[in-house]
Design a protein that fits this description.
Elements lengths: L30 E2 L14 E5 L4 H6 L6 H11 L9 E4 L3 E2 L9 H17 L4 E5 L1 H4 L5 H4 L3 H4 L5 E4 L5 E7 L2 H6 L4 H13 L10 E5 L2 H15 L4 E6 L20 E5 L8 E6 L12 H17 L1 E3 L2 H12 L7 E4 H8 L8 H9 L6 H4 L13 H28 L3 H21 L5 H21 L8
Parallel strand pairs: 2-3, 2-5, 5-7, 8-11, 9-12, 12-13
Antiparallel strand pairs: 1-4, 6-7, 9-10, 10-11
Helix pairs in contact: 9-10, 11-16, 12-15, 13-15
Amino acid sequence: MGQNRALPLTIEERKHPLAKCESCPLGRRGRYVPTKFPVNPNNHSGMAFVGEAPARFEIRAGQPFVGASGQLLNVVIGQHGLDRDDVLLTNACSCHYPDSMKALPKEAIEACRPRLVSELEWAGIHTVVALGNSASTPFLPKDIAKKGITKLRVGPPKLIALENSIPIELVPTFHPAYCLRSHGMFPLMQSDIVKAILKKQICIWYEPTYEVITEPRLAHALMREIITLNKDHGVVVDTESGRDKDQSYGRDDGLFGRVLCIGIGPTDVSHEHHVYVFADSCFGVDPVTDDDYSLANRELMIRLLCVCGIIAQNGKYDIGVLMKFLHYDAPFPLDFDTMLASYALYEVGGIHGLDYMGQELLGAPDWKDAVKEYITKEEGYGAIPRDVLYKYNAFDVHATRLLRSYFGDLLERKGLLKFFNWLCQVVSPMLTIVESNGMGWDHERSKELEASLTKEIDELEAQLPIVTVKD
C-alpha cells in the first residue's frame, strides 16, 4: 500500500481568509506564524519588513523576526529611532517550510501573496524593505525578480503599484540571516535600510558633456592640449573594444580585441565635466595608407598616457588593450583604479562593476541598458551603433571620474591609501603583463618541490607519538 497523502485544505480551513492555502504545498504541513502589525495603527512609520518564511524561533514565539536575524534587525532600525513596534513585520510566506524541502516553493509565495498585499494595504504601508530574493518575488515581475538580490538592491527605492493599493516604495536588500553568515554584506544591508528610513540616496551624478573626434588632425591638437593641462594630474581613460571589461580577462585577440574608441576625461578644472571620445579613425589602421597624423597620434597617445597617468575602472584591462593597440611594451602608469578601490573597501563579490557602482554610489541611471539590445555573440560591443557606443563610452569615463573623487576621500578616511596604492602600482601592472602574455609553469621544478615536501611530511609524521584510543 502507498503512503497516505494529506488532503489539501479547503477554503473554509484557510489559515488566513485571503491566503490560497488550498493550493499551497505548505497548506497542511507548514506551521503558520501571523504578521506582526504596528502597535499603534494610527501612528507608525508606514514601513514593513518582509522576510522569506518563519523559522524555528518564530514558530515557538508565534511572531516573525524574533531569532538572531530579528535581533540584528532590531539593532539596525534602532540606530535610526525606530522600534519593532513601529513597523510591520511579516514574510512572503506565513508558514514554516520543513528542512526536507531545502527551498521555499514558489507556489507557496504565490498562494500567500493576496494575504501579504491585503495586510500591507490595511496597515497603510508606504515603504517595504524586502529581505532577500524570496521576499522580493511578490512585488516584482518575474523577469526582474530573477536577477537576484545583489542586483535588485542597487539604486534608490523602486516605486511599485500593487493591486487595489497606493504606490509603495520597495527597497530590496539582503536578509539579516544571510548577513550573519556573510559579514561583508552587513554594511550593504545597513545602507539599504537607511535608504528606506531616511528617504535619501546619494546623488552625485550629472550627465557629462562630450565630444566625438573622428578626424586625425583635430585629435592631434586636442591630445596636445590635454597633455599641457593635465600633466601629472591624471586623466580618466576608458576603451571600448569587443568585450565587456568588467566581465573579461585574458588576451583580446581578433575581432573582440579591436579598439573601437578611446574615451579621455581630463581632470583639470576647465574640463572636469567634459569627455573626449577619440574614434578609432583618429589612429589609423593601415601604416601604408594612413596619413602622417594618424601615425603620429599613436605616439602622442602614448605620451599622453605616460605623462598624465591613468585613472580607470579595471585599469589592467584598458592598459592591456592600449599596450597592444599602440604597440607599447610596458604597462602605462595607473594612478587610480575605481574597481580596486571598491575591492579594497568592500571585500565582497558582485558589487564592483562600473554600472553597479554608478547607480548605487552616484545615483546614476542604468546607462548600460541602452547598449544591451545591440550586443551580439559574434561581434560583442562592435555591433553597437557608433553614436550609441560613443555616448556609452563618455558615460563610462564620467562615472569613473566621479567615483575617483568618492573613493579617494573614503580610502584616506579608512587608512587604506597605502594598501590601495600598492594594488595600483605593483599588483595591477603585474596582472596586466600576465593577462597579456600568459604565465609560464616550470613542471620539472614543480615535481622537485613535490618530492621534497612529501619527504619532509613523511619525516614529520614518523616523529609523531602513537596514541591508543580506548573504547
